Amino acid sequence: MNSPEPVNTMTTRPSLLEPGKNLKKRYRTDLWFQRIGITAIFLSLAFIALLFFQIISEGYTAFIQTNILLEVEFSEQAFAKENLATADYPGLIKKSLTDTFPEVKSRNGKKLLFSLVSSGAAYKLQEMVEANPKIIGTRQKMWVAAASDVDMLMKNKIDRKAPEENRRLMDNQLAWLDILKSQGRLEKQFNQTFFTTGDSREPELAGILGGVKGTALTLFITLTLAFPIGVAAAIYLEEFAPQNHWTDLIEVNINNLAAVPSIIFGLLGLAIFINFFGLPRSTPIVGGLVLALMALPTIIIAGRASLKSVPPSIREAALGIGASKMQTITHHVLPLAMPGMLTGAIIGMAHALGETAPLLMIGMVAFIVDIPGAITDPAAVLPVQIYLWADSPERGFTEKTSAAIIILLAFLMTMNSLAIYLRKKFEIKW
Amino acid sequence: MEIAASRMTDQAFPIMNADILAEEHARLHARPVDRKTVGSPFVKNPRMTCRNVDVFYGEKQAINKVSIDVGQNQVLAMIGPSGCGKSTFLRCLNRMNDTVSSCRVEGKVCLDGIDIYGPAIDVVPLRARVGMVFQKPNPFPKSIYDNVAYGPRIHGLTRDKNELDEIVQTSLVKAGLWEEVKDRLREPGTGLSGGQQQRLCIARAIAVSPEVILMDEPCSALDPIATARVEELIAELRAQYAIVIVTHAMQQASRVSQRTAYFHLGDLIEVGPTEKIFTNPGHKLTEDYITGRFG
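Above: the input entities. Below: the C-alpha cells describing the complete assembly.
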C-alpha cells in the first residue's frame, strides 16, 4: 500500500497483446502434458490392437476344420452281434479308405493311409448307427474329421517343400490328399466339434464347451455367494457398525485381503474346503467358493465407497418422515448405491473369470473330457483350459489356445455389457 | 501516499483502534454470565416443552440448559449467529440428533406431556408426528407422487389407492404445489425448480399428518420469489400445525413468526413475542445481533 511507484507497476503488468516469456513457458508446459497424455493413450490402444490382432489372426483358423468325405458301407456282417457298441467302427473307416485307394497294399502304407482320418471318426459312425439303426446294410456318404496333421497342412501350417524326414506327412500321404482334394472330398468346413465337446488329447477333437460350462458354473457360484455377502457386509460396516477399534481392524484387514496373492486363496480352499469339509476336488463348487473369497474384498470396498457417496440429505429426508433405518437403506440408499455396487461386483467377477492360480491348487487343472452338468462334476475353466492347451506339444493346439482366448474375451465382454445394461437400468437420474 | 491511504480508511470506516476491537470481540464471544433467559419462554397450552436441555458433541457442549415451549398454531423462529446451536436444538425436537453417534442429549423434551427421550419412546412414530423440512430441498429421486406418498405408505396410513391419492392431493394443495404439478405427478420430483422442490418437501412432511413441523433454514437455498411463496405457505400452515423455524434472515423471522428465540453460543438468551424482540429487545446481545453489529 505504501508508495507504489507508478512506473514500476507499468513494467510488471503483463501486456495483453504481447504475453511475456513466462506465459509462453506456462503454455508450453500445458502442451507437453497433453502430448504425453495422448502418447500414453495411443500406445496403450496400439498394444491392445496388437494383442487382438495377434490372438484373432492366430485363433480364427480353429473355427474351421478340415473334413474328409468318406463312403462307408455299414455291412450286415459287421453288425452281426446284438450289441451295437461292440461293432468294429474303426474297421468300417479303414475299409472305406482301402476301397478308395485299392493300390495301397503294404502294412506300412495302410497305417499311413489310416492316419489321415481322425480317430474320432469311428465315434461319429457309432453315434449315427445308434441314432438310426436302419442305416445298417446301406452305403452312406459322410464327412468325417481329418487328422490334425492334415488339418495343419490344409491351413498352410505344414510346409510341403520341407524334406520328408522333417515333415509330419509323408510324400505318399500328400499324394493321397491331393487326389482326395481333386475329387472334392477334402474340404475346410465350420468346426462344430470345437463348440460342442470337451477337452481331448487330439487337437481336432478338442472343444471348448467343457471349459465354457465349467466357467459358467464356477462364476454362478461366485456371484451368488460373493455379491449378497459383499453387499450385506458393506451395508453393515457402513451403516450399522459402531466406529471403534474393532471396525477399524476389520476395515484394514479387508483392504489387505484385496491385495493378497490369489494362489494363497487356492491354498486356503485346498485346506478348508477340500481337506477339512471334504468337498470333491476339481469341481465348480470349490472353485466358486475360492473365487468368491477372492472377489469379496473388491465387492465390499466398492460397495462401501458407493454407499458413502449417497448424499446424506437423502437419508435425512427418509429418517425425517419416520422411515426406520432399514427402510431408509432399502428404499433410498441402496437403489442409489446399486450402480456403484454392480460396478464393483463386475470388477470382482472379471478378476475371478481370469484367475488360474488358485484353481490349480484345488485340482481344476486336471484333464477332464466330460462336459460338467452340475456344480459337483469335475470341470475345467476357460483360463485353465488355455493354460493346458498352451502347454500341449501338438501343433494343432496352438490355434486352439488362441481360439480359447477369443472365447474367454467374448465371455468377459458379454459379462461386462450385461453389467453396463443393468447399471443403466438401475441408475436414477437426479 | 501514506496520507492518502489513511484518508481513504477514514472515509470508509469509523476509527476503531485495536484495543476496542478486541474488547468488543471478547464481549460478543464470551458466554454471558447471567444465564437466565430474558423474556417469556413459556406459553399456555404448549405443544412441546423443553426443560433444561443440554446437548453435547463428545466433550463439547453445544446447548446449555435451554428451556422453551412450542405453542400450538404459532410459528417460533430461532435466530442467532452461525454455530450458536439453533439447528442442533431444532434437531433435538424430533431426535434427528440420534444419527450422530457422538451426540448426547440431557434434560427433558416433551411432546404433549410425554418425554420423547424416554426409554419406551420409538423414534419412528415420533418423527411421523414431528415432521422436518431441511435447509437444502431434498426430494427423493422418485416421482412427485411417490415423494408425497412415501410417508403414508411406510406408516400404513391408507387402506387403498383412492385414499392415498386423496392424501397426496390434499398435501400438495396445502403445500400450494397442486396447481403446478397436478398434470405431471409421475415425473421425477428432482426435475422441479428449487422453490417447488422445497414445497414438495413440505408436502411430503405434512402427508403423514404431523403435529409439529420443524424447518431448518428452509429458504436459504431459494431465490426471493420462491422464498416469498414458502413464507406465505408457512403463514397458512400455522392454522393447523405448531411450527418451529430456524432462520438466518432476521427479516424472515419478523415476517413469519409470532415468537422469536435468540440463541448465542449454545445459550438461549432471549425469547419473546416477535415484535418485542425486534423493536425492544431485553438483552444487550439480542440488540447487538438484530441491529447488525455482528452475525
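Note for the figure: Residues 161-174 of chain B form the longest helix (14 residues).
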